[in-house]
Amino acid sequence: MFARILSICLLSTTALTAADWPQHLGPLRTGHSAESGLLNTWPADGLKINWKIEGGVGMSGIAVVDGIAVTLVQKNEKQLAIAVDAKTGEAKWETAIAPAYSNAMGNGPRAFPAIASGQAFVFTGQGILASVDLASGKLNWKNDTIKEYKGEVADYGMAASPLVVGNFVIVTTGHENGVAIAAYSVHDGESMWQTNFADSIGYSCPALLNVADEKQLVVFTGTHLRGLSTLGEPRWEYRYVTPYDCNIVTPQIVDGDIFISSGEDHGAVRLKVTKSGTEYSVEEVWSSQGRTSVMRNEWQTSILHKGHLFGFDNIGGAGPITNLNCVDATTGKLAWQVQRFGKGNAIAADGKLFISMMDGQLIIAKLDTKQYTSLGSQKVTRGTRQAPTLSDGVLYLRDDESIYAVDVSGD
Question: pTM of whole model > 0.85?
Fold first, then answer.
């Protein structure tokens, strides 16, 4: 135990800048970037595409650190980690991680890379966790987590992006009895700890949050929201069962509470976790469930801004109708709604929402709690589920064929 605690205390990290987007949902896994000075008016001749290059099949996002953009693609019957120069799109390296992954809901890798300590940590569709040297593309180590824990791949593929906490890289994976929350050494891939639950796996990415005045791992499995210490020790649980175990969003902090939401006509809830002595309790601050819910995030994590949650509200069981909603996070009441907005995903920066749509449109809108105001839209991709990545005034997007860099720097 002492060695494990020491491993956390001796934190080895890469120095990040405001231009870096090192992991799923950005620097703090909130969907926010600290960048400013971005465009305020739509260019008369449209957004400039800095470059467009060939990519590959998959739903993995794009991480950017130190001017290097990394993602996972599938081509030539392999899942590959690839890196390009973020300024030019010039290829830097590609490294084979695993055989191709096929699934009725979409082929290829799903999970967003995590970059830390000069390494890119990637997680394939069948649950292989690997470390690749950021500069050279050398494969440092890899572990078949499903084989290791005698588990099964999630129905729609392994989608939970790795989380780096100190010298641990943490993933949610399959275990013979359900789900495993597992930590590996960033240095050599050695198993450091694992905690097993009889839950289904789910697809949500773990988060490191300040809960009950302490840092905790918060994991949204297919059936529960769970709090653990940074050494994997269970703290509390909240049961949240969704049809098809489709809990996908990343838990978010709202004034010390936790917000989660799910699609399949499920809903949303804000939870307060408190500690008395060594015991924890979980209380619903507000809950909005079912067909009248104010927020049913299908696979998109809502963005918190000025006490409001901006998110995609999917109507029905993965149906085609999706609204864009703004919800008062204090009361759980709807502030405004754009009906039939369409399926998309979003990040926030400089008072704006940057939205990538499944029909290929890139939309920029004001981050306004009073009303929806679009600055403009432009078709860029063939369609994508991934939210854009923002780095140094450039949005990075991808589809099943290409990777794009779009200039959104200031006027």
Answer: yes
